[in-house]
Amino acid sequence: MNAQFLFDKSISAKVRSILLIPFEDQELPGRIGQFYPQATLSVLWKKDLAGLSFKKLLSRVRSRRSDLVIASLHGSTVPRSLSSVNLLLSLSGSPHAFVRTGESSLEQVHRAKVFGETALRAVSGVFIILRTYLLVTFRLLRLSPGGSGEDIPHPRTKKVLFLRTDLGGSMRAGGSISHVKGMVRAFCKAGYEVVYVSDAVSEVLPSEVLQLQIKPSPDLDFFDELQLIAYNLTVRRKLRTLVARHGPGLIYQRHSLFSFAGGEAARKFHLPLILEANASEVWVKKKWSRLFFEHLATRCELLALRSATKVAVISKRVAEQFQPYGISGDRMLLNPNGVDPEEFHPDIDGTFVRERYSLGNRVVVGFIGTFTGWHGVETLFDAASLVCERDSSISFLFIGDGDLKSMLEKRVGAFTDRMIFTGLIPHPEAPRYLAACDILVSPHKGFDDGTAFFGSPTKLFEYMAMGKAIIASRLEQIAEVIHDGENGLHMEPGNTAQLAELILKLAGNENLRQQLGARARLDVVAHYTWDKNVERIGKAIGPLNP
Predict the structure, then answer these.
(1) 448-494: per-residue pLDDT in tens?
(2) Which helix (H) or strand (E) holds 81?
(3) How confident is the model at residue 165, as a pLDDT?
(4) Do 148 and 21 share a structural domain?
(5) Residue 220: in which H helix or E strand, if any?
(6) Are residues 234 and 375 part of one domain?
(7) CATH number, domain containing residue 82
């Protein structure tokens, strides 16, 4: 790390307490500890800050009084703005603040500069918010409560404008990448010409896809809600030109907070709009995160829903989240997540992965996903510990990253050679890693507050397409897809002992593993592919109408 401050002994000797905000940077505590062995380190991980209002977030950071505060953007799996982190550090109360932006890059935060720039940007943000309020109010007055469902336009060309407006186009991991890639490829296979519009170019999309980038304003990235509000206005303005130039017959938009640009373009050019909704963004933000401009977000979501020809929800529970908006049931299209069975299939060779991690001839139990609470990775880890104590022929492959990864790795103990953490892997490598496994687990726990599980886990369909034996939680849509004893085995969410017994059962019965895996493959190909999703969309919007 090249900040001169760290090597100035006259200053560093005075540092007695350090606050670290690594987010996903697992290396930061260890590296800083080498420079300041005499200092007390206090660490706030991403999980310690998630879901807090700005007031509570600031209170938590300021409660950890320190001589030095360091945050990190290095290794982040999600977009996180430097300006917002600089502002948080400037308000922390620590006399010295730095941000790690790269492997060996540490930048000092200058408070006066940060406060001055933020104040000027906030003034322009006020005008953007007022403009959006007026625009949404005017548009809602012109739309009937039922939305555009009374007059469903038919596509005029077999060209789709695929719109991603959540500023997540640069993400390197997560279900959204699988969803976008899967749907874009399925549209291409169905004979559509695809124009992909996002804030970043994606490396995982087919080469024949035309990718157009609309960048957000860097001046407003100190506050994510404000940047999203402004981004909607930018996309709204540029879509007029893009639609006129490229002449799509269909607009397909991933629903996101504050965004109604796709609906405006669809109505202006009399095009069908499919709004893909993985959740009510307002509902999720209110429930588990923070939402400062709640009233505006609610009105924007209402406008987006009313403007859509069909709202493609991933589960029945997501449709229920939209009930307060009064959107009729016939406007909802149930389109669960899916898989590309040509990308994930049983004939993939996982030998390279097995050799890389010295798995030998052991039975391998795998998990791929985000290491957060509701994914249930802790349940699998505890079950793995029980299994390793009872059977030395079984190993576990934990594929992915997240808040809980470092904590779980520290608990491995004597089973370091049999409980293996791969970290993040390139998305195209996922099939080979799953191929290296004999048993795959989807141990979702549900939500601690009792909220009904509304997800449609992409990993589940990828597991099925691999033709592997699956253990999955008996939970909402998961239980509807996996039929106990037919194409997988059910476990009660969070039941560590039961999961361990099921793993031992499958590990000792290769014939059962093959039977369950073969049926899972048949079922997913018949019902849960991205191709099926595009097919359902085609039926919903009707034939071409030149």
Answers:
(1) 777 788 989 999 999 999 999 999 999 999 999 999 999 999 999 99
(2) none
(3) 96
(4) no
(5) none
(6) no
(7) 3.40.50
Question: Any long-range contacts for 140-143 (C-beta under 8 Å, 24+ apart)?
Answer: 140/299, 140/302, 140/303, 140/306, 143/303, 143/306, 143/307
CA–CA gap between residue 161 and residue 266 (Å, rounded): 10
Task: Looking at the structure, tell me whether residues 84 and 215 fall in a common domain.
Answer: no
Task: Estimate to the nearest angstrom the gap between the alpha carbon of 414 and the chain centroid.
Answer: 33
pLDDT digits (tens, 9 = 90+) for 306-327: 999 999 999 999 999 999 999 8
Q: What per-residue confidence (pLDDT) applies to 149?
A: 46
Q: Which residue from 266, 260, 281, 272 is spatially nearest to 310, judged by alpha carbons?
A: 272
The answer on 276 and 135 residing in a single domain is: yes
Task: Identify the segments of the chain with pLDDT beneath 70.
Answer: 1-13, 50-51, 53, 77-79, 144-151, 172-173, 546
115 inside domain: no
Indicate whether 317 and 375 sit together in one domain: no
Residues 364 and 415 in one domain: yes
What is the residue whose two structure tokens read 């991980």? 45
| Residue 172, pLDDT score | 66
CATH number of the domain to which 367 belongs? 3.40.50.2000
Residue 512 lies in a domain: yes
As a dihedral over the C-alpha atoms of residue 273, residue 78, residue 81, residue 98, rounded to 10 degrees, the angle is 180
Domain that holds residue 482: 351-527
**3-state percent breakdown (helix, strand, coil) of the chain, nearest 5:** 45, 20, 35
Residues 373 and 515 in one domain: yes
233 and 333 share a domain? yes
**Would 398 be classed as within a structural domain?**
yes
What does pTM read for this prediction? 0.85
Alpha helices per DSSP H over 256-376: 261-268, 281-288, 294-307, 316-321, 351-356
In a domain, 164, yes or no: yes
Q: Residue 89 and residue 442: Cα distance in Å, rounded? A: 38
Q: Is 420 helix (H, G, I), strand (E, B) or coil?
A: strand
User: How many structural domains is the chain composed of?
Assistant: 3
Q: Which residues of 496-517 are buried (b: 16+ CB within 10 A; e: fewer)?
A: bebbbbbbbebbeeeeebeebb
d(CA 166, CA 189): 25
DSSP class per residue in 507-541: HT-HHHHHHHHHHHHHHHHHH--HHHHHHHHHHHH
